[in-house]
Amino acid sequence: MLKTPIGKFRFMGFLEGGSLLLLLFIAMPLKYAAGIPEAVRVVGSLHGFLFITYLLVIAYTTFKIRWSLKWAASAVAVAFIPFGNFILDIFLKKSSLTD
């Protein structure tokens, strides 16, 4: 999976998407329901690092394989939607980009 630019992008998408889900569905409930704000501090910092790395991987993929603006904009947009990266991955697998 990590041998091609698309493979690297897909892997980073899984990491970034997973960190968003951890932040939204585990860390934030711990902060507001259990009174543990440290959870958001730790997971939020990790997610922020992974998000910036994800954006860099989008730029790398766009320039390396001459990705269209549609794919690059979609990749950025789905980063803000829970489960968005996983849905984009399904579309990437169906496209000819992963071949």
UniProtKB/TrEMBL annotation:
Q: Which residues form the DUF3817 domain?
A: 8-92
Q: Which UniProt keywords apply?
A: Cell membrane, Membrane, Transmembrane, Transmembrane helix
The keyword Ion transport appears for this protein: no
Query: Which InterPro entries does the record cross-reference, listed alphabetically?
Result: DUF3817_TM
Localisation per UniProt entry: Cell membrane
Span-the-membrane segments of this chain are 43-63, 75-92
Q: Which domain of life is it from?
A: Bacteria
Q: Name the major location.
A: membrane
Membrane topology note:
Multi-pass membrane protein
| The keyword Transmembrane helix appears for this protein | yes
In the UniProt record, which is one GO cellular component term? plasma membrane
Query: One Pfam family of this protein, by short name?
Result: DUF3817
Task: Report the protein name in the record.
Answer: Integral membrane protein
